[in-house]
Amino acid sequence: MLKYDENVYRAIFEPDTTSPASTIPERLSAVHPLTVYDNLPFIYEDCEAVQRKVLSEILERAQGTVYADDHGLNGVHTLEAWRSVAKTSLYPDYQSYIEREMDGEKGQLYNAETALYVATTGSTGNIKYFLESKAGNVAKDFMMTVRGLYLRHTLPIIANMEAKNLTITNYAPVDNGHDKNTLTVRASGQTARNIRKRTGTMNILSVEFWESSGITAHDRDYLIGAYALNEAMFSKVCCNNLIHFGRILDRIIAEGQQMINDIRNGEFSVPMPDDVRETLRAEFPPNPVRADVLQDIYNQNGCLITCPDDVEAIWPELQAAMGWLAASVGRDAREVLRRLPKKVKCHDMGYGASEGKLTIPMKLGSATGACAPFNCFYEFLPVEQAGDVEAQPLCMWEVEKGKYYELMITTYSGLYRYNMLDVVKVVDFVGKTPVVLFCGKSSDKIVMDRKVIYGYQIADAVQAAEKELDIEFDLLQAFGNGDAFHLLLETKTELPYEKVKTVVNRVTEKYLGCKPKSIYMMDHGYKNRLFTERTRIDRGACGIKLPVVVDSAPEHDILQIL
C-alpha cells in the first residue's frame, strides 16, 4: 500500500458506513486540507484504484433511477460492466430528466439530495439547466480548495489576508425558480460567489455588487474600474478570461479623471436604481487621500495608464493574475499580461465547465493541469475515433503522452459518459495521472473538400510562426470554403507583411499540410469589438471565448489581405 495518511486512505477506500458523508469528495473535504495536499502524490500514483472507487460510488447512486432504468445501468457496479453497457451522452439526452426533476419528480438521475440547479447560458442565449447533487456541489467546492492549496504554494500572496482580490465574474443572480426549496444559480458566477462569502473583506467587489440588478454591463465595467482604483492594496486579479481586466484598464485610461472624482466624492457618476446606489454608497465612502495619489499620477501623464510602470505606480502591491491560459482565451490572457508589470505572476484557473471542475493547475504560467482522480470518472476517446459509436474510450491510466482525446466525464450529479465535446492533449503525467491541456471544442474545425483541420491545429501552426517572427497575434481566427482555408490575424505590432505571409505559409504547410489561401490582417480594435458585441447584461468579457473557426470573413475592419 502507498503511504497514505490513514484519514485520507479511509476517506477513499474504507468509508465509515455510519457517517452521513457518503462519497469520496465529501469525506475528503472533512480531512484537513493540508493533509490532503500532502497526500496528493499518492492519489495521483494510485489513480486507477481511486477512479474505480469513484465510478463504483456514482453507479451505486444511479441504481433504480429513471435514467438507469432507461439505459440499462441497473445492476452495473464495476468498470468492466460499465464498459459493456455505457453509451456516450450529450446534453439533449438529459433534458427531459432534468425538467421532470425540476417539476418535482425525484430520482431521475441519482438517488441523493439535490443541492441546487445550475443555469448556464450559451452563445445562443438559451439557458440550459443541470442538476447539482450535494456530493457534486461538494466535489466542485473541494476542487477549488485543492487548487487554492497549489496557489498558496506557488503564489504566497494568496495567503496574505491584507492583500485584496479583484475577482471579475459574470452576474450571478440567485432565485428559487421551479422549486421553492432548491436554489437556481448561474454557473458562471457561483464559484466566485462562494469564495467571496468565505474570504469576505479580502474582496474589492462584494457579493452585493455582483447581485445588484439594473446596471448595464458597460456601467458595471466602469464601476469595477473605480473600485479597483480606490484600493491601494489591490494585489490579485482573478478572471476566467483576463481580457475583461484589459477592458477595465481601457476604461481607466479613457475615464480615469471621472473615476478619480467619484473616489474623491464617494459617489458613482453612472446610472443605477436608487436602492442599488444606496447599497453601494455604504461600501464606497469618500476617499480624498487616495484621490490625491491618483490625481498626481494622472497629472504627470495626462492619463492614468500609459505603460506597465504606471500600473505599478497605481497598484504597487499587484503581484498575481489568475485566469484561463489555454486555447483562444490563453491568447487573450497573453495580450493583457503584456500590459502589466513583469513582477505580476500568472497562474491558470483550471480547466472546467458548468458540468464539472476537471483539472488542478500545478505550475506558474502553465495552461496545463492534472486530472483529479477523486472528483469524477474520466474517460478519453482518441480524436481519430470521434463519432464512432463502437469506439471504447480509455481510462485515465490508459492514455498516452502526446495524444489528443475527446474528454468524457461521469459525475456525482448524474452525468454518465457525458461527452464534453472538448479536445484535450495529454502533455505529461504526475504519478500515473495524466496532466492535460485543453485545446478547444471538437466542433471548432474546418471541413474542406478533402481535409478536416481542427482549430487547435491551426493555433499550433500559427504559434510556431509567431516564434519565428517574434510577433504575438492577439487574435487568431480562420474560415474555410471549398478546399481552401483563410486566416484572420490581429496584432498591435507593426508588421513586415511579406515576411509574415512567407513564414505563415511555410509553417502552415509544414503543420497542416496546406497553406491559407489568404491572410486577413485585421484592425487593431477588431477583437475588442467582437467582445463588445457578445456582452450582455449578465455576461461580460470574462465569460466569453472567441472561437478559432468562424463562418466567413468580416465585412469591415480589414487592414490588409495577404
Briefly summarize what is shown:
This protein is an alpha+beta fold and 562 residues long. It is built from 19 helices and 23 strands.
Descriptive labels:
single chain, 562 residues, alpha+beta, GMP Synthetase, Chain A, domain 3, 3 domains, seven-stranded antiparallel sheet, four-stranded mixed sheet, 19 helices
Uncertain parts: none
Mean pLDDT: 92
Tell me the structural class.
alpha+beta
Ends distance: 62 Å
Fraction of residues in helix:
25-40%
Overview of the structural elements:
The chain has 562 residues and is α+β, with helices and mostly antiparallel strands. It folds into 3 domains: 6-135 and 351-441, no CATH class; 158-175 and 185-318, no CATH class; 445-561, GMP Synthetase, Chain A, domain 3, CATH 3.30.300. The chain is 39% helix and 21% strand. The chain is built from 19 helices and 23 strands. The strands form 6 sheets. It has a 7-stranded antiparallel sheet with strand order 11-12-17-16-15-13-14. The longest helix is centred in the middle third of the chain and has 23 residues, at 243-265. The protein is globular. The mean pLDDT is 92.
Helices and strands in order:
Elements (H helix, E strand, L loop, with lengths): L5 H8 L10 H6 L3 H13 L1 H16 L3 H6 L7 H7 L9 H8 L11 E8 L5 E7 H21 L9 E5 L5 E2 L7 E4 H13 L7 H5 L5 H14 L3 E6 L3 H23 L8 H8 L6 H14 L6 H7 L5 E4 L3 H11 L7 E4 L3 E2 L2 E2 L1 E2 L7 E4 L5 E6 L11 E2 L8 E7 L7 E13 L2 E9 L3 E3 L4 E3 H15 L5 E7 L2 E7 L6 H16 L5 E5 L3 H9 L23 E4 L1
Parallel strand pairs: 1-5, 3-6, 6-7, 7-8, 21-22
Antiparallel strand pairs: 1-2, 4-5, 9-10, 11-12, 12-17, 13-14, 13-15, 15-16, 16-17, 18-19, 20-21, 22-23
Helix pairs in contact: 3-8, 11-12, 12-14, 17-18
